[in-house]
Amino acid sequence: MTRTEIAALIVQRLKANEPHIRTQFATQNYFVIDDLLPEAFAHSIYHSFPDPSTMMLRKSLRELKYVTSQMNKYAPLLEEVVYAFQDPRVVDAVSEITQLKQVEADAKLYAGGISLMGPGHYLHPHLDNSHDMERQRYRILNLLYYTSPDWNVENGGNLELWPNGTKAEPHTIHSKFNRLLVIGTNRNSWHSVSKVRANRNRTCVSNYYFSKVSPDGVDYFHVTSFRGRPEEPVRGLLLRGDAALRSLIRRIAPTGLWRTKHYYKKGK
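Predicted structure:
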């Protein structure tokens, strides 16, 4: 299928679930849709994922996972799926559901594309960078489409929301096969991914949406800021220091001292 055909299927599922997911987002700052795409097609997406050795490994105290935005290096199907979520019909449908204003997709796939988490991989509690690469638009939505068949919640690799802060218990959202998860990103949307405990890979297609309008009506800026899990106080202190240092750098150099590699470099 082409991205246009995939987008039509996504819009159909969004419209079919609109009353429920509109309420879910309004009350919980996220919504989920299961069985987003035909099952056989969803399996094809999973089998199109590349060998992780061809992806970029992000390894630090903050995270451990494989990512890439350079979609022209991989199976064409993956690029079609990624950009299906940027079809104006999909963007408009999500905007209507979330009631967010001036919602825009991101053709550069800044921090988007595909990700793969293997055994032992994790993503610690964090707030996403508040803006796009040029610091012109607010990052307002994170769209995650999970593609690992028969992925049980016990396998780990599940998204965790921390609505009461990182010292409280998180709310776990199962990274279920063929599930779309859309979460709002703002000044308080702390989230993480639990450690993968299965001896297999958890795969995901991801997109961010942006807007020139602040999601809560207040002007703000922050770098991606990590925290430790409640049972890791020492790591938590180190990550707080890391976030403070990077925030200081951004005050001195608003666009940063180095350019991220996690975006789609067209023509390369």
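Summary: The chain has a mean pLDDT of 93.
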